[in-house]
Design brief:
GMP Synthetase, Chain A, domain 3; six-stranded mixed β-barrel; two-stranded antiparallel ribbon; 36% strand; globular
Length: 356
C-alpha cells in the first residue's frame, strides 16, 4: 500500500515542458523537458516562440519583487478558468510589442492611458499603465496543441506625465478606479483591433496588477482586479492576492510570524546537514491571509539514512513551528531527483512519504 501511495504521489508531481513550432492556434510539439511540482496551481508548460514582451518586462521589473509575483500570480488566477488538469501554458504569442507600445502610449488610438487633460489626485496627465503581460492556455490532442484561452495582466504603476516617479503615492482607491476603466478599454481593443481577430472570441481573463511602490514599500505589489470575458466584458471583481517568496525581505515585512517560522526550520536544516542545503518556499495569500506554501528542499546526501534524518528534521520543524492554518507541501530533492514528500494539510499533522 505504501508503494502504491508513493507511486501515485510521484505521478501527480510529473509535469512537462514542451518545445513547439507555431502555426496559428493549433501547434505541434518537437522537444520536451520536465519539471516537478506538487501544487495543482502549476501548469505543464509548452514552449513556442519567445514572447516579444519579455525584454521590456525584464527591464521594468527584473530587479523587483514584482518580477515573480506578476507571472506566478497570473497563473494562479487563471486556474479556475483553465484547469491545470488538462491545459498547457505558454508565453504570450498574440500581443505583439508594437501593439503593447501603442497601448502604453497616450497618443495612440489604442491607448489605455488617461486622456490628455485628465487629473487624478492632483497629478495632471498621469501615466498609469506601465506594462502588459500575456499567458496562453492550450489543450493537447495527439501531438497538436489548440489554443483555448488567454490571460492578461495590466500592470499599473502611477507616475507623472514624463514617466518620472510621483512625489507622493496615489491612493489605492484611485488606482483601482482607473484599473476598472483600463480593463474596459483593453477588452474593447481586443474586440476591435485586427491584430486580435484570431483570439477575440476565445475566453480571456483580464487582470490588473498594482505594482509595488518602491518609495514606500518595495514588497507591496499585488493583483487588485479581474474580469473573465467570453465574447463580452465580464463582471469586474476586486482581488487582494499575493505570491510571496520565502525567505525574502518581502516575506519578513508581509508576514513576520510565518517568515520567522520558516527561517527557524531553514536554520535547523542547515545546522543538521553535512553539506550545503537549499530551502526555498512560495506562499499564496488571499485577503492578507496565507492559504498555502510549497517548499523545495535541495539536499546533498550520500546515504539513505542521511536522507531520512534530514527529512525528519524538516518534518519536525514544519510540525512544531508552522501554524495549522494553511497547507504546506515540501518536495525533498537529492541532487535533481525528488526523494521524499512532506505534507501538512490545514488542521492536520505532518505526513512524510519516501519515494523508495
Amino acid at each position: 500500500m505504501r508503494k502504491l501511495v508513493c507511486a501515485l504521489l510521484a505521478l501527480m508531481m510529473l509535469v512537462g515542458c514542451h518545445q513547439a513550432k507555431e502555426s496559428v492556434q493549433e501547434q505541434t510539439a518537437n522537444h520536451t523537458a520536465s519539471m516537478d511540482s506538487f501544487d495543482d496551481s502549476y501548469y505543464k508548460i509548452v514552449k513556442f516562440e519567445d514572447s516579444e514582451l519579455r525584454e521590456d518586462f525584464y527591464l521594468d521589473y527584473g530587479s523587483s519583487t514584482d518580477f515573480a509575483s506578476i507571472g506566478r500570480g497570473l497563473q494562479i488566477l487563471s486556474t479556475p478558468y483553465f484547469s491545470t488538469n488538462n491545459h498547457y501554458m505558454s508565453e504570450g504569442q498574440y500581443l505583439k510589442l508594437a501593439m503593447q507600445k501603442e497601448m502604453v502610449s497616450r497618443s495612440s488610438q489604442y491607448s489605455l492611458q488617461p486622456k490628455k487633460g485628465t487629473v487624478i489626485e492632483n497629478v495632471e496627465n498621469p501615466t498609469m499603465l506601465q506594462n502588459i503581460q500575456e499567458q496562453d492556455y492550450y489543450v493537447k490532442s495527439g501531438d497538436k496543441y489548440t489554443l483555448k484561452g488567454l490571460s492578461f495582466a495590466l500592470i499599473l504603476e502611477p507616475r507623472k506625465s514624463d514617466n518620472s516617479r510621483l512625489d507622493s503615492a496615489m491612493s489605492d482607491g484611485a488606482i483601482k478606479s482607473y484599473g476598472k476603466e483600463c480593463i474596459e478599454k483593453f477588452y474593447k481593443v481586443i474586440r476591435s483591433a485586427d491584430e486580435f481577430e484570431k483570439i477575440k472570441n476565445l475566453p480571456i481573463l483580464i487582470t490588473v496588477y498594482q505594482a509595488a511602490d518602491t518609495t514606500t514599500d518595495p514588497t507591496s505589489g499585488r493583483y487588485i482586479l479581474k474580469s473573465y470575458c467570453q465574447k463580452e466584458l465580464g463582471e469586474i471583481s476586486t482581488l487582494n492576492q499575493r505570491t510571496v517568496l520565502f525567505a525574502s525581505e518581502q516575506a519578513t515585512k508581509y508576514d513576520k510570524a510565518t517568515a520567522s517560522a520558516f527561517d527557524t526550520v531553514k536554520t535547523s536544516l542547515k545546522n543538521a546537514a553535512t553539506e550545503a542545503a537549499g530551502f526555498v518556499g512560495e506562499a499564496r495569500y488571499i485577503d492578507d491571509e496565507i492559504q498555502s506554501m510549497v517548499i523545495k528542499a535541495h539536499l546533498n546526501v550520500k546515504t539513505s539514512t542521511e536522507l531520512m534524518y534530514l527529512t525528519s528534521i524538516i518534518a519536525d520543524g514544519i510540525e512544531s513551528k508552522f501554524s495549522d492554518d494553511f497547507n504546506v507541501k515540501v518536495l525533498v530533492y537529492s541532487q535533481d531527483d525528488v526523494e521524499a514528500i512532506i505534507i501538512k494539510d490545514k488542521g492536520d499533522s505532518v505526513k512524510s512519504y519516501f519515494m523508495n
